[in-house]
């Protein structure tokens, strides 16, 4: 198939374009939100093809993968077609609902011609999907390999935009974790994090948007991975850390309670329990390694790339038929 899909979520798209289709990625001047084209810091296959809006109008496109309400407008503008009616479409919902959560209605809730593919069961449960058909296609990631060494008595954390997103990403908790062990924080737009939360630069080292392979190699040297996010769909960085073979200490919110088995580390809504988990792994490297092996085994089984691509192949065939 020839699949039109926007580069909205880099890690998710990295997995999605590994399939057996041609993936048409809009690119606009300046590579803004309407068309970022191919990724710069991820390894994508040649089947991920950049196309300008003008080129897309003449393309044979079998299905559109929408990820934002804005994408519907762009399909109408660029292709002159209505998604779900003139061209098959599916909408990927990456995010947890915002605002008055029990009442949050999905933007496609009033349509029955475009299925919503939620990336977690939590998302499907908490969004009001209305009349829209829904399916859950859980995440899958490209396996970075069992790189874990845990040689450094440090905590690895990966958060994008922790200053802007604040309590959503648990950025306010970083200082408490830094008391248990020094932190290496990886992500985008980390500037101002120390100042906003009074973090000691000697205890919290920032790594601004490194290439994915570099981040994986550096992260795998940390003794334990901490996932402090309060309200997120399911951080792909957590799944990647589990693939690396890292023990994980995770705030038990949203889909994390389904994604992390007890033997993979520590899962709790109590920060004091999580801090004890960090200290235990710092003290006992053998326990950390055993938990990391359990984390990797679980991640490979539940969040493997083959299962993810197979699920998407089945869904795309169903939408296109």
Characterization of the model:
By secondary structure, the protein is of the alpha/beta class. It has two domains: 2-140 and 305-320, Rossmann fold (3-Layer(aba) Sandwich), CATH 3.40.50; 152-302, Glycogen Phosphorylase B (Rossmann fold, 3-Layer(aba) Sandwich), CATH 3.40.50. It is 35% helix and 18% strand. It has 13 helices and 13 strands. Strands 3-2-1-4-5-6-7 form a seven-stranded parallel β-sheet. Strands 10-9-8-11-12-13 form a six-stranded parallel β-sheet, with helices on both faces. Helix 7 links the parallel strand 9 (183-187) and strand 10 (204-208). Helix 9 (236-244) crosses helix 12 and helix 11 crosses helix 12. The chain is globular and about 60 Å long. The N and C termini lie close together (12 Å).
Structural descriptors:
7-stranded parallel β-sheet; 13 strands; 6-stranded parallel β-sheet; globular; Rossmann fold; 2 domains; 321 residues; 35% helix; 18% strand; alpha/beta
Structural topology:
Elements: E1 2-5, H1 10-16, E2 22-26, E3 48-51, H2 53-56, E4 63-66, H3 69-79, E5 89-93, E6 116-118, H4 121-126, E7 134-136, E8 152-158, H5 162-165, H6 174-180, E9 183-187, H7 193-197, E10 204-208, H8 212-219, E11 222-227, H9 236-244, E12 248-251, H10 256-259, E13 265-268, H11 271-283, H12 285-302, H13 305-320
Parallel strand pairs: 1-2, 1-4, 2-3, 4-5, 5-6, 6-7, 8-9, 8-11, 9-10, 11-12, 12-13
């Amino acid at each position: 198939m020839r699949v039109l899909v926007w580069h909205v979520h880099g890690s998710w798209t990295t997995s999605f374009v590994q399939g057996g289709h041609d993936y048409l990625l809009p690119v606009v001047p300046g590579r803004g939100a309407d068309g970022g084209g191919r990724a710069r810091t991820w390894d994508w296959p040649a089947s991920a093809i950049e196309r300008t809006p003008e080129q897309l109008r003449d393309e044979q496109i079998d299905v559109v993968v929408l990820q934002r309400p804005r994408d519907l407008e762009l399909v109408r503008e660029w292709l002159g077609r209505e998604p779900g009616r003139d061209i098959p479409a599916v909408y990927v919902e990456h995010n947890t609902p915002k605002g008055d959560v029990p009442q949050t209605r999905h933007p496609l809730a009033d349509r029955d011609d475009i299925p919503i593919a939620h990336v977690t069961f939590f998302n499907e449960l908490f969004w009001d999907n209305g009349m829209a058909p829904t399916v859950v296609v859980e995440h899958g990631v490209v396996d970075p390999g069992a790189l874990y060494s845990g040689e450094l008595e440090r905590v690895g954390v990966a958060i994008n935009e922790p200053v802007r997103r604040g309590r959503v990403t648990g950025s306010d908790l970083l200082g408490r974790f830094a008391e248990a062990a020094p932190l290496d924080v990886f992500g985008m737009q980390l500037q101002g994090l120390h100042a906003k939360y009074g973090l000691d630069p000697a205890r919290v080292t920032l790594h601004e948007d490194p290439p994915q392979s570099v981040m994986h190699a550096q992260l795998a040297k940390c003794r334990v991975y901490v996932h402090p996010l309060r309200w997120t769909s399911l951080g792909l960085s957590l799944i990647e850390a589990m693939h690396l073979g890292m023990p994980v200490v995770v705030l038990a919110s949203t889909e994390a309670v389904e994604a992390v088995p007890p033997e993979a580390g520590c899962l709790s809504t109590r920060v004091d329990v999580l801090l004890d988990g960090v200290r235990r792994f710092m003290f006992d490297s053998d326990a950390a390694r055993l938990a990391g092996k359990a984390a990797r085994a679980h991640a490979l089984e539940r969040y493997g790339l083959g299962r993810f691509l197979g699920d998407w192949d089945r869904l795309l065939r169903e939408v296109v038929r």
